[in-house]
Amino acid sequence: MKKLLALAAVAFGAAYAQRKMEQQRSEKDLFAAASAGKAPAKQNQPKDVWAAATDSRP
């Protein structure tokens, strides 16, 4: 009886892990499809961000 219960627990764990991996893969594919063809946004920040943040001039 213990062996059957352990086998059922292992089967449930394997099925859960497989479902979780498929979900992560589909989310990754969805993100890749949604972000395909988009160029990263350019930010007009000075090279020395710390100096710009502490600069007291308006």
Protein described:
There is one protein chain. The protein is 69% helix and 0% strand. It has two helices and no strands. It has helices spanning 2-35, 49-54. The chain is elongated and about 75 Å long.
Fraction in beta strands: under 5%
Q: Could you give the order of the helices and strands?
A: HH
Detail the poorly predicted runs: none
User: Ends: how far apart?
Assistant: 78 Å
Helix fraction bin: 55-70%
Number of helices: 2
**What is the strand tally?**
0
Please identify the oligomeric state. Answer: single chain
Quick structural summary:
The protein is an all-alpha fold. It has a domain at 1-34.
Keywords:
58 residues, mainly alpha, 2 helices, elongated
Secondary structure topology:
Layout: H1 2-35, H2 49-54
